[in-house]
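Model it.
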Amino acid sequence: MKTQIKLSTADEVRDFVDQASKCDFDIDIFYNRFIIDAKSLLGVLSMDLTQNLNVNYSGYDAAFEQTLTKYAIA
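Modeled.
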């Protein structure tokens, strides 16, 4: 599944990574040619947070879906 999100602050990144880390499936964030593991706090913080980020994941977790909805681009 794919969705676009916007993470603007370090607290939002921390919240997103915490929820992603609880999932037992792979979650990747894409921006331009970069692919980052969404469970890596330093990896996500190293991305350009002024841009929309593409999230690609292959499983389902209700709490993670809520987090995606919170940061989704409308």
